[in-house]
């Protein structure tokens, strides 16, 4: 085997399907994740290739880039950067991850989150420099690009639109560190150790940061509710 | 287990149901761009590790890809490969009925393009949970186009009697990066750090090239060409030549004819069959006078070899 043709080593994707099903709420409902995962396990170890990772996790990276404040116009650039790192580091990732049934799911999402967080932070720094603006330029939520336009009924669609816009508006106003931890925890439901890995801080820091993030988020939600109630009167 | 206030939790749940999902065109576009950039870096690394030669090799890949970058063909390959991969990865994601299954070999071509970078990068991956933040170590992953620290010099693997021809072999290594780049992206003007959203969507397919058989043929050609390049890269010029002879009809009459002819000339040069190489070059130049590859071939075997002088030479 020549060095240049070194394939991405074999690695079971295991129950990764769960993350994809979770990650893509618009995916085909005919694919029960657990059954698919079981089928995958039965089929034996599958090679973990860049393409398999890309196609399993592109939606994960995309939506979290948006949640972390990357604008619609820049999200594909950010995805490119993330997956270039994935392309280069995938063999390393495999080497350092033990082959247990559950680690692929957890560590892959934590690993991708770690890359994404770094890329987004760098992107934000770069954007700040370009703008020549102050430190806290809130990212624009760009409502039209955030919402799934395939919602079933007009009423439901309107409610969802509102929720999506509100969530992104709040996220965009949060402190960067707290936004990151909130997105990974409350929206992606990563575990504390996974978040610690993604943010490269210890678990205690994650717990503390998450507490303050939840508090900040709740406060902002309640504030908006109060404003709505006042304007409705 | 969330400890969020129910109102806040409800907002998150409602928003998650309404969030837009990744558009499929963006998914395909980013995939192509990542592979193209990765291949550009991989090709450069494959040739030599000196900075000047890296840029030279990247430029060569660009010029190699442009002459036969028939946008439709390329888009078909990239697009169908994408579809096949999705169809082939049903257990990882929701099953999507896809008629593109007959073109499985395309996925193989793209997946197995000679591009993966040797996993010898000295910079660390994101640390394990127990590790402390290491700002200096965080920088490398952000620069996606940084060449790995350990170069691959093909000439080093050559038998001694072929040492004199090492330059040609290295040139063949560069040539071998051609099809990979081609398979991934239409005319590449700048292979590094091109902002994705400024690139054309590349989703328009040329009429007549939309059919799976056409794409399958091209995939087969790419696969065969890859084998030829692998043989050239390994110093097995005879094998490369016999492969070309065996597959000649399909390969040298198809959309990758230019590449195949280029590979043949490289093989002839490697074998020292200079007269044959000259004759083949003359045919090449007559057929594709405007090809950037022709410009290089006009200089003969020497010029071909000089394109990619191995490091330390």
Tell me what the structure shows.
The complex is a heterodimer of chains A (233) and B (313). Chain A has 233 residues and is an all-alpha fold. Chain A is built from nine helices and no strands. Helices cover 67% and strands 0% of the residues of chain A. Chain A is globular and about 60 Å long. Chain B has one domain. In chain B, helix 5 packs parallel to helix 8, helix 7 packs antiparallel against helix 10 and helix 8 runs antiparallel to helix 9. Chain B has 313 residues and is mostly helical. At the A-B interface, helix 1, helix 2, helix 3, helix 4 and helix 5 of A face helix 1, helix 2, helix 5 and helix 6 of B.
Helices and strands in order:
The complex is a heterodimer of chains A (233) and B (313).
Chain A: H1 16-23, H2 33-42, H3 50-67, H4 75-96, H5 103-131, H6 154-173, H7 176-187, H8 192-199, H9 203-232
Helix pairs in contact in A: 1-2, 1-3, 1-5, 3-4, 3-5, 4-5, 5-8, 7-9, 8-9
Chain B: H1 6-18, H2 24-47, H3 51-65, H4 71-88, H5 104-111, H6 135-142, H7 166-184, H8 212-233, H9 237-251, H10 257-270, H11 274-287, H12 292-297, H13 300-306
Helix pairs in contact in B: 2-3, 2-7, 3-7, 4-5, 4-8, 5-8, 7-8, 7-10, 7-13, 8-9, 8-10, 9-10, 10-11
Kindly state the number of beta strands of chain B: 0
Please state the overall shape of chain B, judged from the principal axes of the Cα atoms. elongated
Helix-strand string of chain B:
HHHHHHHHHHHHH
The total of beta strands of chain A comes to 0
The number of helical elements of chain B comes to 13
By secondary-structure content and strand pairing, the structural class of chain B works out as: mainly alpha
Largest sheet of chain B: none
Q: What structural class do you assign from the helix and strand content of chain A?
A: mainly alpha
